[in-house]
Amino acid sequence: MTEREKAAAGLLYDANHDRLLLEARAHAQDLCLDYNLTRSMQADERLRILRELLAVCHDDIVIEPPFYVDYGSNVRMGRQFYANRNLMILDGAAVTFGDHVFVGPNCCFCTAGHPFDVEQRNAGLEYAKPITIGSNVWIGMSVQVLPGVTIGDNTVIGAGSLVTRDIPAGVLAYGSPCRPIRQIADKPHRVIL
Fold this sequence. Notes:
Layout: H1 3-8, E1 13-14, H2 19-36, H3 43-53, E2 62-63, E3 67-69, E4 75-77, E5 82-83, E6 87-90, E7 95-97, E8 102-103, E9 108-110, E10 112-113, H4 118-122, E11 125-128, E12 131-133, E13 138-139, E14 144-145, E15 150-151, E16 156-157, E17 162-163, E18 171-175, E19 178-183
Parallel strand pairs: 2-5, 3-6, 4-7, 5-8, 6-9, 7-12, 8-13, 9-14, 12-15, 13-16, 14-17, 16-18
Antiparallel strand pairs: 1-11, 10-11, 18-19
């Protein structure tokens, strides 16, 4: 079993000494650098780079630079995805975003974790667990999403939250650790003029 296959299976794997993983991360870093150096009017070039970098992305995706991934090949973005500046995705495992997802600035989606065992950790072993974000989700600024988390459709995650466990659909959730506060439908619609 390759180190990449171990990562996909949620097993401990060596991300620091495996030649293929090191090359894949270096390639992704180069593409991120190219993307981050584009000018605001270079939408076609940005989309070309994202298509090479990500497993799935659509024509209507917008990611404001700077943007960083570990591999990119594990990232799947739905339609009308928007992310503000400083999006970081550490994608040792799959990171999947639904349609109409909005991500505030300075957010991190991290599939990687490290073992508590000192010898394993010092040997450079880590694990990766997938992250899934549903459709119609708004992630506030400076939110951190940890390995293995699923956020349901139509949910809002408040700014500065640390999402350590699954969040159901249709809720406002925030905090550190992030917890559902109330159903979105519980609040009357507000019209802003």
